[in-house]
C-alpha cells in the first residue's frame, strides 16, 4: 500500500499539483475521494473534518504521523490523536490574527458609535442620534492571551490611542502591551478596564475562567468580547453579569457547543451580539493556509521536521 | 449698553465662571436667556444655533465681531454673516478627526466582516456564516479631503495595512498618504480604489462632485462613505451607481437636507446605511470645544487675535 497524503481543506488545483510533485512517493487524495479503507493508510493529513474523528477511531490510524489543521485551536481533535506521540500536529496560528483583530475592532466601534442601533432605526426611517458616542482614545483594553492574535489586537489598540494590558501565563512582556500580567493575577484582581477581550485557546486551564466572580470584580462596566473559545465562559454567569450591570455588553463569536442552539438565551439577550464563529475567517484562505502547509511539507519530506506552528502536546496550542 | 458675550453650546458651570472672569468687561449670557433685543449687542458668540440666522437678520448684528462655532463646517451660517468682513469665524476643526475616523472604520469593518448582517440573523437565532469575509490589508482607500480628518483616517488606514491616497486642491504631499492627487485629477480619472471616503466641506467647489460619471469610472466596485457634507453627492446618481453595480455599498452620515426626509430612498436602499450626522460626535465635547474657545478668547481679549481655527472667508473652511 502506497503512503497516503489526504487533503481536507480548501485548496486550489495548482496547489494539489504542486503537492503531488513534491510528495512524489505519496498518493495524494482529496477528502471527497477517501474511503473507509484509506484511513489507516493516511500518513499526512492536510485539513481536518470533524467526521474524521469517528473514522480514524473506527478504522485505525496506525500510519498517521502529521496533521496540518486549517484552524488555530486543536481542541476539536479527539484526545486519542492529540495525545499520541507518533502524531505531530501543526496549526494555522497567525493567519487568523488580522481578521480576528479587525472583527474585534468592528465589535468595539459598533458599540462605541452605536452603529447597530442606527441600522435598526433605519428600518423605520428614524433620524435620531444618540447623545453618548464614545471614543477609543485613552480607553483601557485587557487582552487574555498575548500570542499572535493578542499582540495584533494590541498593535491596533495602540494605533487607536488605547491603554493595552496583556495577560499570559507568565506575565512576561509582549510588544504593543503597555503592561502584562500573569493569568492568575488577572483573573483574581479587580480591574477598571473598558474592554475585555478573550483570545485564549481551549485547554483545561481556561475552562470556566470567566465567571460571575470575575465579572463582578470589574469596576468600569466593561464590554466583553470572546473570540477565543467558548469553554472559557460560564454562560449563565455572563448573562447574570450583564443583567447585574457588571458588564455593559458582550460580543460572542465562540461557544461551548457550536452551532449555538437556537433556544440558547444568548441569541435574544439585548446586550449580547452573536456571530457564527467567523472572526478568524481569512479573505485569501487557500493561499494563506497553503503557505504554511508548503513550508511544513517541504521540511517534513526533506528532514522530517515541521518548522511552522507545531502544537505543543503539553500546552495544547 | 454693555458688551455681550453669548454662549449657545454645551458648557459646564465652571467654564461659564471662567469665561466671566476672563471677559470681565462683557455681560455673559446663555442662549436660553437671550431676548430679541440682545442680538444687536452680541459681540462674541460661542456656539451657533440655526434659529440665530433669522434673529440676527431681523434684529441686526452690528456689534458682532467673532463667532466661535461648535462644529467644523460653517455652511449653515447665513451668507450675509459669512461674507461680512467685520465678523471673524473660528470653528472646531480637529476635534472631530478622531470620532469621524473611528466611525469610518466602523462602517468599513461592518461591511468587510458582515456584522450588520449577523445582527439581522441574530433576531431569528440563525447561525449562518458568510463565505466572503474581507480584510483591510492591502486594500486601497482614497480620501477626498486631506486635512485634519483625512490625515487621521490615513494614519489608521496605514495601521490596518492599507494603501492610502489623499485628494486635496493642490495634490501636495500629506503625512500618512502614500500618494496625493489634486481634486480635478481624482474626479476625472478612473481608479481601482476599494474604499472611497469623502470628508470635504461644503463649498461651491464641492457641489455635486460625486456623480454617476464619477462613480462609473470606479473599476473595483468600491464602497463609498460620505462623512463630509451632503452637497457633494448627487443623490439619484449614487442610487444609480449602486443599482448598476459601479459601487457595492454606501455609508452616509450627511445629506443635502437634514434630517433626511423619511420618504428619501436612501433609507430603504439595501446597499445603503444611513446614520444621523453623528460621526463627528465627541465623547468629552464640552471639554474639547472649550479648550479651543479658551485659547481663542484669551488672545482675542489680549490682542484681538484668534489663533485657533480661523475660517478663511475665501475658502469657506
Automatic annotation (TrEMBL), chains A, B:
Keywords: NAD, Oxidoreductase. One of its GO terms (molecular function) is NAD binding. The keyword Cell inner membrane does not apply. Residues 106-278 form the D-isomer specific 2-hydroxyacid dehydrogenase NAD-binding domain. The keyword Zinc does not apply. This is Glyoxylate reductase. It comes from Aerococcus agrisoli.
Amino acid at each position: 500500500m502506497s503512503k497516503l497524503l489526504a487533503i481536507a481543506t480548501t485548496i486550489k488545483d495548482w496547489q494539489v499539483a504542486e503537492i503531488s510533485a513534491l510528495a512524489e512517493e505519496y498518493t495524494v487524495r482529496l477528502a471527497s475521494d477517501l474511503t473507509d479503507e484509506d484511513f489507516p493508510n493516511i500518513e499526512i493529513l492536510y485539513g481536518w473534518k470533524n467526521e474524521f474523528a469517528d473514522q480514524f477511531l473506527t478504522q485505525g490510524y496506525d500510519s498517521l504521523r502529521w496533521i496540518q489543521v486549517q484552524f488555530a485551536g486543536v481542541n476539536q481533535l479527539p484526545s486519542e490523536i492529540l495525545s499520541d506521540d507518533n502524531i505531530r500536529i501543526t496549526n494555522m496560528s497567525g493567519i487568523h490574527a488580522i481578521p480576528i483583530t479587525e472583527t474585534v475592532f468592528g465589535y468595539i466601534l459598533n458599540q462605541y458609535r452605536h452603529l447597530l442601533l442606527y441600522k435598526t432605526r433605519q428600518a423605520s426611517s428614524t433620524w435620531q442620534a444618540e447623545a453618548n458616542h464614545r471614543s477609543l482614545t485613552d480607553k483601557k483594553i485587557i487582552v487574555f492571551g498575548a500570542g499572535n492574535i493578542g499582540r495584533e489586537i494590541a498593535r491596533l489598540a495602540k494605533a487607536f490611542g488605547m491603554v493595552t494590558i496583556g495577560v499570559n501565563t507568565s506575565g512576561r512582556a509582549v510588544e504593543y502591551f503597555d503592561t502584562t500580567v500573569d493569568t492568575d493575577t488577572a483573573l483574581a484582581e479587580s480591574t477598571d478596564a473598558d474592554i475585555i477581550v478573550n483570545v485564549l485557546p481551549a485547554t483545561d486551564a481556561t475552562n470556566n475562567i470567566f465567571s460571575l466572580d470575575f465579572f463582578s470584580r470589574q469596576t468600569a462596566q466593561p464590554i466583553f468580547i470572546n473570540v477565543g473559545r467558548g469553554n472559557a465562559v460560564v454562560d449563565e454567569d455572563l448573562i447574570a453579569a450583564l443583567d447585574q450591570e457588571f458588564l455593559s455588553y458582550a460580543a460572542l463569536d465562540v461557544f461551548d457547543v457550536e452551532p449555538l442552539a437556537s433556544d440558547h438565551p444568548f441569541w435574544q439577550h439585548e446586550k449580547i451580539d452573536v456571530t457564527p464563529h467567523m472572526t478568524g475567517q481569512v479573505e485569501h484562505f487557500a493561499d494563506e493556509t497553503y503557505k504554511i502547509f508548503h513550508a511544513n511539507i517541504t521540511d517534513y519530506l526533506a528532514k522530517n521536521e515541521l518548522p511552522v506552528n507545531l502544537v505543543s502536546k503539553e500546552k495544547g496550542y
